[in-house]
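Technical note accompanying the year-one report. For the benefit of new consortium partners, we illustrate the data format agreed upon in the data management plan: each record pairs a sequence with a structure-token string. No post-processing was applied to the example shown here.
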Amino acid sequence: MRVSGGRLSLNDRQQIAAGLAEGLSYSDIARNLQRPVSTITREISRNGGPSGYRAHQAHQATQRRARRRTTAPARPPSTPADTAHGRDPHAVLAFAERFTDLLAQTGLPPMMAKVLVCLYTTDSGGLTSAGLVQRLRVSPASISKAVGYLEEQQLIRRERHPRQRSEHYVIDGDVWYRAMIAAAQANGVIAEAAQQGADILGADTPAGTRLHDMGQFLRHVGEDLAQAAEHWRQIFSPSPASGPDDLERPADPA
């Protein structure tokens, strides 16, 4: 799908309003308009949210903001990533937006995707809540909700420095290992419930057979996922005495 650029027109905003009225997701609206999901998310959030969005009001508000920007002193663009080491801030920002859209398309809520990408593209791999608010220019409540969700999914962890009162939200080397193990455990729970349903409905009935097959599939997939996660964790995790540059990676297949 070709993703269009440029500013949203009044017609675009009317389509957004119509999509919200129909109960479409942000991803569906973005797909219909051939726009990034992040564009639709920002447009709706800054103009009343999904329940209060009005096309004409949003268009007028955007025009007023544009007029104010032409008279206001310029300030540095917001970027959710470090721009040290001679990085091009515009390239960094463009990558972060693309990566955020990609994660959102896989089902990760847009704000959670923003926070995760912000942490991944920060050299330290960790930021305080205030740091995330400053970089992403969103409310503390939005950050609090996002980090809570990401913690539940085992994608980030929080830590407190001994001499600092604020907590840091951190991505470490085991983040995807923990996420895969959590997914494998979830598959196991569903597989067990499916097997119980098969026993109740009768193993020889169509419904029972269907549930039995589902349970077997998820159980084996979960076991394979856990084994693969442990295998690749051992290969890609650095030893305590080595740093990232010392990590020996397996050769890519020819």
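Partners are asked to follow this layout when depositing records. Residues 96 and 117 are 6 Å apart (CA to CA).
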